[in-house]
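wait is this the right file?? whatever heres the structure
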């Protein structure tokens, strides 16, 4: 017996799991224990190919051999009859032991009735069953003969599907199953109409086709609202059946089959205004099922109402009934852009796998659409679904299509594309953000629409935290400062606000050199809103740069004269002491003095020309200098002789600052040290403009003021001469500008002028001549009036010099040794110096004669 029991168990396991059918592409799972009132066993199953869920009806041909005709009739009808409200047949197979029928994943209605099914779903279910019965009895001329709770199944969307095809047949068949085998159905006598109970199932053919199904439909209504019944007398009491449905329900139970209305009549009564089938849920279903044939205006109205009613509808119904219909309408174009809003709202309740399967693929396809209305609707509803799409799909499929909106000819598409960047930025890769996206935003910053330019600046400010450091420094400052010049006031305000929001992204150099100067320009903007925001932003950046420079040293100057113990130069003190007696220019004077003391500035000899004084200083005698105030300026003069250096605060063209020549070949070394220092410090402020004019070939103009005219010599008398230097007339002895033989102050002031004869401190003149060239000249003889260093003759003559100018250099010898580059160079230099001297002497003579006239006042 134990062996036989094990054999039976093994056989049943093998059969139930479908192992005896190697080609059966489904896995048979657990049995639904609550489904036990029919000839079928309901099992959960999965498809092996994609693991999708299915339901499998299994019939044991061995144990229920007497009911085999019912199972075979049902199997045949499953394969031959199709209707949306009939349980969907997928696959099936019949063997010697079992019959398998594979359908959509469903659950028995009996399980839902025990869990207090939603009243709206109950009415919708009864509506669906009535629709099927109308189709079978009126359109297809069939009699179902087995309508009860055990033959009704519910899908995951909440729809009721009709099964129980055991006796479904047509009276036109040779042997209708309802006439022959209806009595084999479990508890058939309890559901049989009165005429059948009195006689037999053969009586059915004598009445209308719907008479039997009408009675069974009334039994179903009673069971749904009141539960199971034991005899037909209980059906007379409506119980919990809705009041508006009760009168029509009573008509369905009429004893005379000839007076029973059809289920179609019951359906029509319920669909009338304020009828029991006239509710929002059923209207939505009916409209969705015929959505593609509705008028555009009707569709738009329906979609607006649906968007408002979604929250009041059963969640499962919305997810698995409404959503697939809307997605199909969107994908195939019948829904238009307005269908997207309810799709997004319903999709928020889906799981990740369900969302990807039902919505993601359709959205990707819609982004590639050329219909602007669809693309605009996607951008407007982007916030509702972008977080449910993974980064890979966004980067590879959605953003490339979305980026086309940056260059779209429709301004509204460009504007919404810019706004959408803030929603997708978290899904984009660094490469996409820092290269592709910034390139598009850069173009939009010059868009013709001011609103788009403004939104672009706002967008850049908000996505700045997603940019890498190199792109921040390269992009943000130019982008925001350019928008500060935008003619649209709100764009300028947006730029200031963006700079303020991204203040932490800039270093002190950018803030000081690039940002603050640009912000300062908007402080006087014509629009008040710009000025107010500019002041706020400026305060922010000033505080920011103050914080950044806190750690900077007080000075970057390194004291090279002092070394640290390890031999490296030490930095100056962070807080250098400043003597109270030191003037504002003390640092420059001390620097020059330091050069003289430390040997950085080599002493140079200067041949001092005679400045209107016949008592020159002896050559080679050091002359100490003292500092004295002349009243008209500060002067450094020679206390022991007439050769002094005076610096007066006079105009550049007035001649008050007499020129002096600096020549390193003079023997008067000690007397020139002070002059060298002053010449080195003031050479940059000398009359360089005069030299510029001379090089350009025209004379510098002087400003003449109206005065009493006096006779002016003829222009023919103003001939340039080389042998005679111009003489400057004496002026008031009290003025620092006066020149005379007895006025030492005037001579000192004249000699202090830093003119064209000054040399650079570097020790080499601009001509780079050789020192040997000057050895044959009488350089140090200060007693000779006409003695003048050649280096001075190579420079422009000072206008303050008195006496006879030196003669021109002798012409170069024609016997120069061929091949001697040194001699040729000296000849060229001497010739150039001679020509330059002639030109400037002519200018000086002309100016001197002009100054003798009273046509204008000299500039002080």
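ok assuming it is, sequence goes like this
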């Amino acid at each position: 017996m134990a062996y036989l029991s094990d054999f039976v168990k093994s056989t049943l396991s093998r059969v139930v799991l479908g192992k005896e059918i190697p080609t059966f592409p489904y896995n048979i799972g657990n049995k639904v224990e609550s489904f036990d009132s029919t000839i079928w066993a309901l099992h959960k199953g999965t498809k092996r190919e994609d693991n999708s869920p299915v339901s499998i009806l299994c019939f044991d041909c061995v144990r229920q051999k007497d009911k085999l005709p019912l199972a075979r009739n049902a199997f045949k009808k499953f394969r031959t009859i199709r209707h949306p409200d009939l349980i969907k047949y997928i696959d099936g197979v019949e063997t010697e032991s079992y019959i398998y029928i594979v359908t959509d994943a469903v659950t028995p209605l009996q399980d839902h009735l025990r869990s207090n099914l939603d009243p709206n779903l109950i009415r919708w279910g009864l509506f669906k069953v009535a629709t099927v019965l109308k189709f079978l009895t009126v359109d297809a001329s069939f009699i179902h003969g087995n309508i009860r709770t055990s033959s009704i199944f519910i899908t995951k969307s909440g729809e009721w599907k009709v099964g129980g095809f055991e006796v479904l047949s047509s009276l036109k068949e040779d042997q209708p199953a309802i006439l022959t085998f209806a009595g084999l159905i479990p508890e058939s006598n309890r559901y049989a109409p009165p005429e059948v109970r009195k006689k037999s199932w053969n009586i059915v053919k004598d009445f209308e086709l719907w008479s039997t199904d009408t009675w069974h439909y009334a039994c179903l209504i009673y069971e749904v609202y009141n539960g199971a019944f034991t005899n037909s007398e209980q059906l007379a009491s409506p119980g919990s059946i809705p009041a508006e449905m009760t009168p029509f329900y009573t008509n369905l139970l009429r004893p005379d089959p000839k007076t029973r209305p059809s289920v179609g009549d019951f359906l029509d009564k319920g669909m009338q205004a304020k009828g029991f089938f006239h509710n929002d849920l059923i209207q939505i279903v009916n409209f969705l099922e015929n959505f593609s044939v509705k008028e555009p205006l009707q569709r738009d109205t329906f979609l607006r109402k649906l968007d408002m009613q979604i929250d009041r509808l059963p969640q499962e119904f919305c997810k698995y009934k409404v959503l697939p219909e809307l997605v199909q309408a969107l994908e195939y174009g019948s829904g238009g852009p307005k269908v997207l809003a309810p799709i997004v709202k319903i999709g928020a309740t889906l799981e990740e796998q369900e969302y990807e399967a039902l919505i993601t693929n359709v959205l990707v396809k819609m982004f590639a659409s050329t219909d602007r209305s669809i693309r605009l609707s996607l951008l407007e509803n982007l916030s509702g679904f972008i977080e449910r799409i993974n980064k890979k799909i966004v980067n590879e499929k959605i953003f490339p299509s979305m980026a086309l909106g940056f260059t779209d000819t429709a301004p509204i598409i460009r504007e919404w594309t810019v706004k959408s960047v803030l929603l997708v930025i978290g899904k984009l890769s660094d490469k996409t953000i820092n290269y592709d996206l910034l390139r598009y935003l850069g173009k939009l910053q010059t868009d013709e629409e001011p609103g788009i330019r403004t939104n672009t600046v706002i967008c850049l400010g908000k996505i700045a935290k997603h940019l890498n450091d190199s792109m921040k420094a390269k992009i943000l400052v130019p982008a925001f400062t350019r928008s500060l010049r935008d003619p649209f006031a709100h764009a300028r305000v947006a730029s200031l606000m963006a700079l303020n929001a991204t203040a932490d992204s800039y270093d002190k150099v950018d803030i000081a050199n690039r940002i603050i100067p640009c912000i300062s320009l908007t402080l006087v903007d014509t629009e008040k809103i710009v000025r107010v925001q500019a002041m706020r932003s400026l305060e922010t950046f000033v505080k920011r740069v103050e914080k950044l420079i806190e750690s900077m040293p007080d000075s970057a100057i390194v004291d090279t004269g002092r070394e640290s113990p390890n031999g490296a130069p030490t930095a100056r003190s962070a807080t250098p002491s400043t003597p109270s007696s030191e003037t504002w220019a003390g640092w420059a004077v001390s620097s020059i003095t330091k050069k003289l003391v430390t040997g950085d500035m080599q002493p140079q000899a200067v041949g001092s020309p005679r400045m209107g004084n016949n008592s020159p200083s002896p050559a080679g005698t050091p002359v100490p200098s003292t500092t004295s105030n002349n009243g008209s300026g500060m002067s450094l003069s020679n206390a022991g002789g007439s050769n002094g250096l005076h610096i007066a605060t006079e105009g550049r063209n007035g001649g008050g600052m007499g020129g002096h020549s600096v020549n390193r070949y003079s023997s008067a070394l000690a007397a020139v040290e002070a002059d060298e220092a002053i010449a080195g410090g003031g050479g940059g402020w000398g009359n360089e403009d005069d030299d510029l004019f001379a090089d350009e070939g025209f004379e510098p103009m002087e400003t003449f003021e109206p005065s009493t005219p006096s006779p002016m010599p003829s222009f023919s008398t103003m001939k340039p001469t080389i042998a005679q230097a111009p003489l400057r007339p004496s002026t008031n002895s009290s003025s620092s500008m006066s020149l005379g033989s007895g006025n030492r102050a005037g001579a000192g002031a004249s000699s202090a002028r830093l003119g064209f004869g000054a040399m650079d401190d570097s020790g080499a003149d601009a001509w780079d001549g050789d020192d040997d060239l000057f050895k044959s000249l009488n350089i140090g003889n200060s007693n000779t009036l006409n003695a003048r260093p050649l280096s001075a003759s190579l420079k422009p003559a000072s206008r303050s010099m008195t006496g006879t100018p030196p003669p021109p250099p002798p012409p170069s010898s024609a016997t120069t040794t061929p091949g001697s580059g040194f001699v040729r160079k000296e000849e060229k230099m001497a010739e150039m110096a001679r020509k330059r001297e002639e030109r400037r002497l002519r200018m000086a003579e002309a100016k001197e004669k002009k100054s003798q006239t009273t046509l204008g006042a000299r500039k002080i």
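Residues 821-852 form the longest helix (32 residues). so i think its the right one actually
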